[in-house]
Amino acid sequence: MHFVQKFYHILLCFAVLLLLPAHSTAEPPAYQTIRIGVANDMRPGPANDAIRLMASYNSSYLAEIAKITHWQYEYYRGSAADCLQRLRDGQLDLIAPVSGAAFPPGKYLFSNGHSCAAILGLYTDENDSQITADRGATLDGATIGVLNDNDLKNRLHFFAKANGWNVSIRTYPSSQELTAGLHRGEVQLIACTVFNLTGHERWITFVDTIPQQYMTDAAHASLMEQLNQAILSIEMTNPSFETRLKREYLDPSIYKMARYSEHQQAFIRTSPTVRVVFPGTFSSLIQQSKEFGNIYGISPDILTLLINTTGITFQPVITDSVESAGQMLRDGRAEAAFAVYVNDPKLQMMQFSNNIFWMSFTPIFRRTQAESARPESIVVPTCYAGLREFFQRLNPQAKVVEINNPEECLYAVEQGLYDCTYLPQPYLSKNKNVLLHFQLKIADPATVSVPLCLMFRADAPEMLCHTVNTALLGLPQNQLTQIIQHNSTPDVSFVYLLSQHPLALTVGLLLSFIILVTAVFLIYRHRLEQEKNHALTLRELELQQALDAVEILQEDRDNYKRNAETDHLTGCLNKAAMTMQCQQILDSLPENWTAAFFIIDLDHFKEANDTYGHQHGDDILIEFAAMLRGLLPPRTHIGRFGGDEFTLLLIEEDTGTSEAYARRIAEIILEQTRGLIVCGAPGNVTASIGIAIIPAGGKRDLATIFRQADRALYNVKETCRDNYELYQH
């Protein structure tokens, strides 16, 4: 029995081991590389900018698809025919961007949805040089071929009508028949994407951006299924992705393609000034300078941008109310006004442009009121026609009224007359005056974007509205953003400082007051002490005069002493001063220091003095003394004993080289004396030098070393001159 139990235990352990997952050393599968064919699109001029934006849109969408499918992908760029042939040969897996309407039904597989886009353009035969989009007469009576797709036909029909072209449209079942019809002369132009071309067409103009698809053959059905599932996943789980991508790339590409038709260009050349009326001033939106009368703000800046874009002159006009602004439109004193379109029956006959920009309006409540509560009464400022109706439709349960002044709107809510007010975000950013209303709070999360357009009076030329709409297509969005940001910059005023920095402003004012009081007190003290200080000043003047007199006496004494010790000709110490100072130095010289005493006599000095005169002799002595001061160490004492005889005293700490040092100094003096230049000419003198050394610990007696140096000098004079001798005991 015990054996059977052990056997069962062994079987159980073996079964558990079999059930455990085996450790695999295999590498994970590599990502699948997808080869995608893209038709070359290399058009000259401004088309390149739009083409690059379109390519960025397609590549960004494909990158999002690859995140889901784990594809690695590579592009192949060639002609449409080349890409199709490579797909049939298995060298490509997908082709994009294409449209299913360009191919016979059932021949290829196409992706669901529209995960890529292309530019729809007008083309003519490459040999046709007459047709141009800038001259409508060249298109009158022309036939334009297009694929049999209702969306394409509708876009083309609208485009032709907007340009005032008298053309007819013919449809074709495939791109091959479309281009063949062009080259056979059945149609004069075709509207298609670059993938439908054969390479023998000439580009005329943009029409629009259109959604496109990916295409493959039946051999890649599983690949197309992966692609469709990824596109569906993006649409279901990331619905805002495509919207953001369009705003980033497709909208700017449309701006790049915007162009004025021939009729619009003619209208611009003859258009009179368009007067745009405003119902009063409104901070940050429209203001007028009291000093210069110029009008500025977001709305006038946008009009200036339209002037630069269209060439039409827009003139802002300010009136005092909505009623008077409407009256000016009705009686022809103004042609347009900024407005919010709300399908108002009273304005049914007016013409409205496309939306120019979206203005953020932020709600403001009392602090005691919950932001989630639906307001029953709302007050809005009178700044744009249709604004009240817009908020009325946004809040059908509430009563919405208008007040001219935004400050009055804040006051009305603060007093409980209304539940909330909506004010433009640029106004709030610029003024910051809500912070002065302590009972109010701003509800930023509930901000509402209000679309603004230009409203033209009913009898204004339709071409004016059409031209403005074309201009809006090409209006740089970054410049609109800059205009709003610029006019949202806070005013640096007292109210702004108090609202933004109340504590800092209070401290600053308090410090300023303290400084002012302190300044007044100091001035008062100064006046009280002025008389006392005047007496002290007089005494200081007397004392200063006495000190000046003492200083003069001291200076005279120093000059007298200096004159008494200095040789007036050379500036060296005279004999008496040299003797006294040398003995003092020797008496205080440490035992481990040595001294060298030189006596220098100039050779041939008497001949030079007698030949060239005493002045020349004086010049020799002056130059020789200057030469000594320039080459000797700072501790050297130099004296003139009389005539052409000079003395030197050198001291240094004993290092065993004092004798060699003295010889080196003597040799330098001899060399410099031979080359002495006096008044620009050679001095023609040499030197004879006698040297006496006082070794460390030796007798410090000036008379002794003087005799020794004099003896050495005598020997030099008797022998050869222009030399030196070191006295030897």
Automatic annotation (TrEMBL):
Residue ranges of every copy of the GGDEF domain listed in the record: 593-729
Transmembrane segments: 503-524
UniProt keyword annotations, A-Z: Membrane, Signal, Transmembrane, Transmembrane helix
Signal peptide: 1-26
Taxonomy, superkingdom: Bacteria
Record Pfam families: GGDEF (PF00990)
A Gene Ontology molecular function term of the record: diguanylate cyclase activity
Presence of the UniProt keyword Transmembrane in the record: yes
Name of the protein in its database record: Diguanylate cyclase
Native source organism of the sequence: Selenomonas ruminis
